[in-house]
Hints:
Layout (H helix, E strand, L loop, with lengths): L1 H20 L42 H6 L2 E3 L1 H5 L9 E13 L5 E6 L7 E6 L8 H18 L7 E18 L2 E4 L4 E4 L1
Parallel strand pairs: 1-2
Antiparallel strand pairs: 2-3, 2-5, 3-4, 5-6, 5-7
Amino acid sequence: xxxxxxAGAAGWWFYPRWWRHNPATPAASPVVTAPPQETxxxxxxxxxxxxxxxxxxxxxxxxxLQLAKRAQFTTVxxxxxxxxxxxxxxxxxxxRLTAVAQQADRSFLLSLTSMVDPQRQLTARLPAGQCVxxxxxxxxxxxxxxxxxxxxxxxxxxxxxxxxxxxxxVTAPEAVTPAGAVLEPVxxxxxx
Length: 192
């Protein structure tokens, strides 16, 4: 036992000295870490990139919970139809959730399709709570993201796709982008 303790102490004493004097790893050289870069992952996996700035939705005018209470029911077809877009109006839409992906700006992008015609597609966007200034809204967004993680899995590693999509009820304001109407930010998400 004493021999083992003495050998261990001797090993501890000599190892640091050897390491300090090894020309391949000089003790005086500082540890330098390279900036994050894109790295290739196995096939089927997305590229990991350096963190981008957070996506934060524009001002909502009132809290997310208050807006969700005033939502009007509509369909995917009505949102995508030839009507004048109602930027900022809050809608409750029943749709099929086909995929969830985490974007470089930390938001979750939800791919939705019509209940009647799977070719009619719409996207909804959910920010990360840390990207939002209002603490109450941040807590709501974090809770919604946690629900997605628990129910469907985490989209942080790779996008989640389902052959048999879940039926969901999404509440969010309508936003108009060059690509068309989108729902952002998601204020409520319930699985039917």
